[in-house]
Design goal:
5 helices, 7-stranded antiparallel β-sheet, two-stranded antiparallel ribbon, single chain, alpha+beta
Length: 195
């Protein structure tokens, strides 16, 4: 189920996967400035499905960088947290140690899929080389107790949540650390930014 918030304050609920797909594909096909983007978060685990220490995730990112032509390494506090690949997209660290694949915004579904395949293939090859596993499980309870990832924006966001929400912040933080998903961004700079 998905709720669409309109700029006039009204909303529409799409109750089925088919309704969501039909809505998104119609927006893409209509052009809406001709761009669509996706973000796919995936867990990278050991063979038993356990979360990894950051050093292993950093090794996955480094292995991917070596296989992706022109990949720029982005450091945070001296640690590798993001790859930017020209004309392909970005790969970045998420709160639970999962990896987000973000193909660059595209004009066609075929182009988006091609970029996604490049990033996903690089992630799967890096994981295989390091004897690790990639899964899109949605929710993995083992990640609830996984280590915090060394990225400054996570620390700042956790502190903000704890300050504003108190004890309720822990449920939000646990969700961010233990869940993955797919996000579709249609016309990100237009009036439907929130979609």
């Amino acid at each position: 189920m998905s709720r669409l918030q309109n700029s006039d304050g009204s909303s529409v609920i799409l109750a089925t996967r088919h309704e969501i797909e039909r809505h998104l594909l119609a927006k893409i096909d209509r052009g809406n400035r001709g761009l669509v983007g996706t973000e796919l978060e995936l867990f990278v685990t050991d063979k038993a499905g356990n979360p990894l220490p950051f050093s292993k995730i950093e090794a996955v990112l480094e292995t991917m960088a070596q296989s992706l032509s022109g990949a720029e390494r982005i450091l945070d506090g001296g640690r590798l947290v993001t790859l930017t690949v020209p004309d392909i997209g970005d790969v970045c660290l998420e709160p639970g140690g999962h990896i987000e694949l973000s193909p660059a915004r595209c004009k066609t579904r075929v182009e988006r899929e091609q970029r996604h395949v490049v990033l996903l293939s690089a992630l799967e090859a890096a994981a295989a080389k390091l004897d690790l596993r990639v899964t899109g499980a949605g929710h993995m309870p083992s990640f609830l107790t996984g280590p915090d990832m060394p990225r400054s924006r996570f620390s700042a966001y956790y502190a903000y949540c704890r300050e504003t929400l108190g004890a309720q912040a822990e449920d939000l933080i646990a969700t961010m650390k233990s869940c993955t998903g797919l996000q579709v961004n249609v016309d990100p700079m237009g009036k439907d930014f929130h979609e």
